[in-house]
Amino acid sequence: MIAPANHRPADYSPKTALQKKLINRPRDVVTESLEGLALAYPNLLNIAYAPPVVWRKDAPVKGKVALISGSGSGHEPLNTGYVGRGMLDAACPGGLFTSPTPDQYVAAMHAVEGGAGALFITKNYTGGLLNMGMAKEMAEDEGFRVQTVLVNDDVAQNDPENRRAMGATVLVEKIAGAAAEESRPLDHVAAIAQQVADQARSMGLALTGCTSPRIGYPTFELPADEFELGVGIHGERGRQRRMLASADAMTEMMLEPIIQDLGLTEGDNVLALVSGLGATPLQELFIVFRHLHHSLAQRGIPVIRQLVGNYITSLDMAGCTITLLKLTPELTRLWDAPVHTAALHW
Amino acid sequence: MIAPANHRPADYSPKTALQKKLINRPRDVVTESLEGLALAYPNLLNIAYAPPVVWRKDAPVKGKVALISGSGSGHEPLNTGYVGRGMLDAACPGGLFTSPTPDQYVAAMHAVEGGAGALFITKNYTGGLLNMGMAKEMAEDEGFRVQTVLVNDDVAQNDPENRRAMGATVLVEKIAGAAAEESRPLDHVAAIAQQVADQARSMGLALTGCTSPRIGYPTFELPADEFELGVGIHGERGRQRRMLASADAMTEMMLEPIIQDLGLTEGDNVLALVSGLGATPLQELFIVFRHLHHSLAQRGIPVIRQLVGNYITSLDMAGCTITLLKLTPELTRLWDAPVHTAALHW
Amino acid sequence: MTRDVTLEQMQHWLLHYADQIEQEQATLTRLDAAIGDADHGVNMQHGAEKMRAKINDLTDCHDIDVFLRTIAMTLISSIGGAAGPLYGVFFLRASKEAGPGDVISLDRLAQMFQVGLESIQQRGHARLGDKTMVDALAPAVEALRLATDAGQSTTEALAVASEAAEAGMLATIDMEAKKGRASYLGPRSIGHQDPGATSAYLLVASAAATLGN
Amino acid sequence: MTRDVTLEQMQHWLLHYADQIEQEQATLTRLDAAIGDADHGVNMQHGAEKMRAKINDLTDCHDIDVFLRTIAMTLISSIGGAAGPLYGVFFLRASKEAGPGDVISLDRLAQMFQVGLESIQQRGHARLGDKTMVDALAPAVEALRLATDAGQSTTEALAVASEAAEAGMLATIDMEAKKGRASYLGPRSIGHQDPGATSAYLLVASAAATLGN
Ligand SMILES: Nc1ncnc2c1ncn2[C@@H]1O[C@H](COP(=O)(O)OP(=O)(O)O)[C@@H](O)[C@H]1O
Ligand SMILES: Nc1ncnc2c1ncn2[C@@H]1O[C@H](COP(=O)(O)OP(=O)(O)O)[C@@H](O)[C@H]1O
Ligand SMILES: [Mg+2]
Ligand SMILES: [Mg+2]
Ligand SMILES: [Mg+2]
Ligand SMILES: [Mg+2]
């Protein structure tokens, strides 16, 4: 016995309980989901399974910096849904909530590098940093040029070193993707990516926990009248539990620290991303966006670009995250540039 | 007392219970969500509130048949997310799960009719038929030309007269929208729309009930090891309760009656829509699509077009619906035609 | 004993009905949650609010047909769902039957209910026993006709109509739904009272409470 | 009394460890569910499966450094998350310290644990008390060094190392996490045993169960 038996939901039995999920064997979830993705986007995506890599059908694009991103599975459409023209060249899906391994990035590198080097989009998690760090060393040993951008936008963490990557990941991938598509050199693409990462901040809240199919019971249970403020996208609890409030009030609780931390002031233009965490209807996300838009307008900070929907999720968690990016005309232009992926298209 | 007090969840109190939803006052959900939608798509959509209508910014398009659809709210992105070039001219959002009123359609007519008449996409529900029927009479009284297409694709109902409209709605709207964009006359557009409706069938399953913000407790409670087979998109229970099974087995239970009813045989090409009901992660939908694709391939029925995601939902219900459309080269061509809406874009 | 019904009484009827709906809206919705889509109370409440506002605005209306037509249009443009158009055509057809003037006979009232019910059935194709509002309205219409023909007072006639509506409403519990959303459940609809039959009973009960003399 | 450790023993050590992980994977995941993301057991189990397969394949390996290097690469490419690279660098660095040949001294083993721990700390920047695997490994490394220097047998030395690892693992319960995913919870991480410290204890306990003589 290495640990005492903890509380588990009363009706949970690891042997017999079938989960309320559309899955076959829990251990096959990631692979089978990738197979479905491949079948759904036959003209857009190539997919390999050992190790798992998803990449653009038209890669390698000669002379273009390759954008490579990875993350645990369970955040869909991140990152597999962002592979395609104008965004990522390859995504490396890990296990459920598990940072992918270095060999995945190296395999991605071989599949998509077009002679202009690669930008690795690194999410600030111990696992993300360590695995990508190793991958970079391995790729460089093979003679590839690699730069990284560090995404750490979560203002729920006071210590900047400890800030998790959240919605800014999507914005970095889109904008750096547009820059790469313009055939800019690796240095430029990396600099733009880092600018986006530096000018974006996020905060999330959860109304429920989420259930990983590998364990079959929720990561946490919340009383009917409470929510978790300051959650990440891995089913973790947040920084604090609070009493439920109106959408407007809860939006304000997320918005305030973001504005503070970004130092937004009257006249700044922003891009807003409101993403559901997986089980929240679109309807509610628009209600959150409505208040966010009004509240920022009242402070003289117009939202001039936005994305509202499920863009970075945490399995079947109810709740949402908010991300704001301080725009410049150049970032706005790159945001508006065409993109052609499974989840983002214009 | 007109009825005995029924069972309600123990922790439900209509006065004090705050719901696990991102909403303000329950009665404002529909309006505030539309306000958020308007703010999120300022270049695409016009929105009026009394009565509620969402329409293309570039409408009326002269000489083009106007496509108008309506449904209760809570099915987002249906139908507001399908307004735009290549699809709907206007959508009329009703209350939560409530068919919109005739005056909404008449107002939509005034906003978007471009001189070539209008096609009303009628979902086969008592409320849908009656309200649209009245709207048609009123519009014709004002001198407009109106035709209707009846969508009733749900094979869970044995009596065809009683078949609900499900995912075929999305397919009808896309394909008829493409036909209208080609400036075809009203008769042609109506005929194409009816062909799609006639050649499409659907079936759904629910892993959980859903909670309308107007009542605050779920429409039904399911034991941990059961699901509802043959549900609609209004939180109703299905035709039967079954024991949970693997995704492959549950997919087969939906697929079989659809194939039977459509009379699909070897060599037929189909379009498949796998839509989440609101609280089901994308990951699981791809697992369902994977099996569907394989199972049809084994029968010699290739899936040559597909859509996997949240396209027609039922608030925060977990589960999915499957829709198959028997394709012709012409329908495939129209499906592939460009579309530019909030929820569908290519 | 006059058996006439005045416009003023009709206004009281529908204000009373609006109150009843507001009071019972949670129950109506709960009934609809069991076999429908949990919106009947919400929809009817929306209609009740608009109807009350309309009646309070309509100060210079002197004809029952104009009044009822306005009610019909108000309900049609505010309730939605299945119930909106059905209650709408009930009042629309009843308004035609009433004709102009600010008073009608009990006989005419019975006739209005009769043709109102008919147009609900024309639009919705529901028959007795299909577990819909028709199951509350049809017995009420018949009772009202019989009592009227038997020379009973408005109060008496509407009281028996209300009792018949209540019995019809309760009878829906054991029925299997053949029309409307509850029919999707097939045999699983048995054992639940129909929400529309319940709101229809309230309409007749309100008439009994306000139109008598 | 020989204090040598052979390649064959090392193979048994890691096969034993793989068994332990498989047996305790639900517990490791449950611990991670409380303060992390509920995947530590799943990740380690994946690594254990691959490691076992690799050891069974590796029939013609005669050098401890090659063996441990292969284990390192296998863990790095199969565990993922934070634990994969950290256990990976532990074995990578230990392999360099071991050098070629199929037998090493206890002193060398103690040294391997020492430098393995150092490279975990170089990569992860965790210090004692940060509520990580370091809190189980560091006391074990120290106990192993002391016992080795004191001339104890391999069995004795690894037994005290295992006890120290267990005590270190249990000590994480009262710590506030400063590194890794649990640190996101701040003070709310207190009261829970660290999953990585638990799998690290199992690694040392397996060594004690297999490397003695
Ligand atoms: N075809 C029909 N004929 C008569 N009444 C009907 C018919 N369909 C439904 N109803 C009535 O409407 C009621 C439901 O109304 P409501 O919940 O407001 O609309 P919806 O079913 O569209 O959600 C049912 O309880 C039933 O009494
Ligand atoms: N910076 C670090 N240094 C040392 N150990 C760490 C560090 N970060 C995390 N860990 C260890 O890793 C364990 C979690 O591993 P795992 O759950 O597999 O990865 P992840 O946290 O990426 O999901 C923690 O319990 C902790 O012991
Ligand atoms: Mg993890
Ligand atoms: Mg309804
Ligand atoms: Mg209803
Ligand atoms: Mg973990």
CATH topology of the largest domain in chain A: Rossmann fold
Number of helices of chain C: 8
CATH classification, class level of the largest domain in chain A: Alpha Beta
CATH architecture of chain C: Alpha Horseshoe
- Tell how many strands the DSSP assignment of chain A holds: 14
The beta-strand count of chain C equals: 2
Tell me, briefly, the overall form of chain C.
Answer: globular
The residue ranges of chain A in which pLDDT falls below 50 over 5 or more consecutive positions are 7-16
Write out the CATH superfamily name of chain C.
DhaL domain
Quaternary state of the chains: heterotetramer
Order of helices and strands of chain A: HEEEEEHEHEHHEEEHEHEEHE
Biggest beta sheet summary of chain C = 2 strands, antiparallel
Q: Output the helix-strand order of chain C.
A: EHHHHEHHHH
Q: Domains counted in the coordinates of chain A: how many?
A: 2
Gyration radius of chain C, rounded: 16 Å
Termini Cα gap of chain A:
55 Å
Main structural class of chain C:
mainly alpha
Whole-angstrom Rg of chain A: 20 Å
Please write out the topology.
The complex is a heterotetramer, with 2 copies of chain A (346 residues) and 2 copies of chain C (213 residues).
Chain A: H1 29-40, E1 45-49, E2 52-56, E3 66-73, E4 84-85, E5 90-96, H2 102-112, E6 118-123, H3 126-141, E7 146-151, H4 168-181, H5 186-198, E8 200-206, E9 226-229, E10 240-243, H6 247-262, E11 270-276, H7 282-298, E12 303-309, E13 319-326, H8 329-336, E14 340-341
Parallel strand pairs in A: 3-5, 3-6, 6-7, 11-12
Antiparallel strand pairs in A: 1-2, 2-5, 4-14, 8-9, 8-13, 9-10, 11-13
Helix pairs in contact in A: 2-3, 4-5, 6-7
Chain C: E1 4-6, H1 7-35, H2 40-57, H3 64-76, H4 83-98, E2 103-105, H5 106-124, H6 134-149, H7 154-171, H8 195-210
Antiparallel strand pairs in C: 1-2
Helix pairs in contact in C: 1-2, 1-8, 2-3, 3-4, 4-5, 5-6, 6-7, 6-8, 7-8
The complex binds adenosine-5'-diphosphate (2 copies) and magnesium ion (4 copies).
One magnesium ion sits between chains B (72, 97-98, 127) and C (37, 39, 81).
